[in-house]
Amino acid sequence: xxxxxxxxxxxxxxxxxxxxxxxxxxxxxxxxxxxxxxxxxxxxxxxxxxxxxxxxxxxxxxxxxxxxxxxxxxxxxxxxxxxxxxxxxxxxxxxxxxxxxxxxxxxxxxxxxxxxxxxxxxxxxxxxxxxxxxxxxxxxxxxxxxxxxxxxxxxxxxxxxxxxxxxxxxxxxxxxxxxxxxxxxxxxxxxxxxxxxxxxxxxxxxxxxxxxxxxxxxxxxxxxxxxxxxxxxxxxxxxxxxxxxxxxxxxxxxxxxxxxxxxxxxxxxxxxxxxxxxxxxxxxxxxxxxxxxxxxxxxxxxxxxxxxxxxxxxxxxxxxxxxxxxxxxxxxxxxxx
Length: 337
Known about the structure:
Oligomer: single chain
Largest sheet: 2 strands, antiparallel
Helix content: 55-70%
Number of strands: 2
Radius of gyration: 18 Å
Order of helices and strands: HEEHHHHHHHHHHHHHH
């Protein structure tokens, strides 16, 4: 398994650098991150919070902890709580990073879903919060794959449930689960193309998989085609929906097999949702290649790189020494009927 600092850091730094290149805003000598990396950091926070809670209570509560961590993000972006009873979230360590309070072009679906999730009620697979299929569900899911790196099926389940917190469309839910599955499989020493295919076989078992499945399959086929990247990407879509965003990221990872820089630069020049595509692709390729394959000058100029490294190291520590034991977690099969 690729359970090393290089690969865990590579996953989160790779995604953040890809996000920053697509976001393409520089301030005070730093390449700024968007809400993609902000929310990814809050996913890390939620998983660590759940792990800490299990130490004291012996109960795993991944989805509630992720929900309340996303409520922390909502607080950083609005300066207010969606429910006054959520004031307990203000004690979180992650809120000490003042830079996270910068407002970075966030998707309105995540904002409105979190704003409306009051009285401890949030979106689930069975009780959908809306019918939105935006990419906000998938671009934040990489830490789930890292945390559940010993069991990709558990990563898929938690990924789906985490997506449903804010996005209710089946495509958004499945894309989130599928992305977590990919990161888990890559960390298990899998080749990206092989893990993509294994994930498709798993995805095909789920009710309502067709659209997401077909988009990803199209991306794989185009990855081996002679079409210019811009033309191939146009065939897949703009990347604003979850299924298109994951498919475009997979296309780049397959097309530029082993060349992180070329994949991210191509994503940054695309006319579509370049920051989210670069973020998702960067997570995958960074997990596979390790942080040494990310241009050092990119990391040097990356906003909040210290927080990103800190989060990656904390997840790795929990994987190696924490209370979580994914083989003992019993979860129902994903039911999207």
